[in-house]
Amino acid sequence: MNNNPRKKEIISKAARLFKKRGYSAVTMRDIADSLNIKAASLYNHINSKQEILATIIIEIAEAFTSGMVEVQTPQLTTQEKLQKIIELHIDLTVKNPEAMACLNNDWMHLEEKLPYFVKMREDYEENFRAILKKGIAQGEIGSRDIEIMLFSMLSTLRTLYIWYTKKDGVSAVSLKNDLPVTLLKGIIK
Amino acid sequence: MNNNPRKKEIISKAARLFKKRGYSAVTMRDIADSLNIKAASLYNHINSKQEILATIIIEIAEAFTSGMVEVQTPQLTTQEKLQKIIELHIDLTVKNPEAMACLNNDWMHLEEKLPYFVKMREDYEENFRAILKKGIAQGEIGSRDIEIMLFSMLSTLRTLYIWYTKKDGVSAVSLKNDLPVTLLKGIIK
DNA sequence: GTCTATATAGTGATAGAC
DNA sequence: GTCTATCACTATATAGAC
């Protein structure tokens, strides 16, 4: 989509700052400082602060959208589908935890791209919900409140980036090993 | 602690705005507008924007700290302690979802009170961790990665406010009924 | 307790030299 | 591609009238 290397660098540095302090608290001067240039120079590569945010969020949101398409392979059991969703979140978080943070915390500051983003997020949740619903109908998963199961899984998966990037945080390997069983089978023996 | 009714009103309106757009994106004019007064008038009741944020966050953080003390009753089993932690989060979220949002999203914008807050949060997590560790040692809970169990539960509990305040969101009653079993026993039958 | 007016500093973004 | 200089606007906060 975009192979301008300087632009990529700007977006990458900006994402790190957005993750730490949030979009609104980061200034164009902060972003420029992190690249050792002046704020005005940024505008040779990007059009606006808003464009930086939209680029970060929309790219990873689209990765989730296409990931969900593959999850919905009809041959899979509910448990396999849920396993694949967990892996999708782990993979995208490990690949770009800064973008995950922006996706989670700064999506409401999107302007032009906001409706497009909100539609993708709603569709993602609706597909997730349908998988859980089918799982209950087929007796694979417990018949408890679907919304609670949905938000419980999604809350954990969406904030993975916090724990993955912590010092002494969890590794990608232990996540792949222990997160699915923790979410699917619970904590109590 | 503070029974000035106008000050409480300002803090309450500010919390609603902070929840929606975040501390940095909300201006003193926005807060004043929501009270139908001018920004300058706010300073007759509060000293600074920062004081508003600190008041919101520290009050609910202290509620979690004292809640955790009661959870640690030695007579309780691990499962009972975890049940009590879940109830604590549900109760405080239902009581003040706006403050929960600020606690989660805007704590890094605290200035003078930041070290005090961080200490409380670290102690809370450490106490939670100790409960899980003891549960594993006593064979009550599965011997998987403690950090993953900890962050899985905490992520869900800390973002409860999102789902509780959604239209068609989950009610306090279904949360108390189905959230503990979902977190402790998992989703798959 | 709220207002108008204002101080002071910072914001995103542009123009044009090098 | 980066710079200096600057614009137009907005931020938090204060002073003092009513």
TrEMBL record, chains A, B:
Superkingdom field: Bacteria
Occurrences of domain HTH tetR-type (ranges): 4-64
PROSITE patterns the UniProt entry points to: HTH_TETR_2
Ranges of the DNA-binding region feature: 27-46
Record GO terms (molecular function): DNA binding
Entry keyword annotation includes DNA-binding: yes
Pfam short name (any one): TetR_C_24
Key word DNA-binding present: yes
Keywords in alphabetical order: DNA-binding
Name the UniProt record assigns to this protein: TetR family transcriptional regulator
Native source organism of the sequence: Planktosalinus lacus
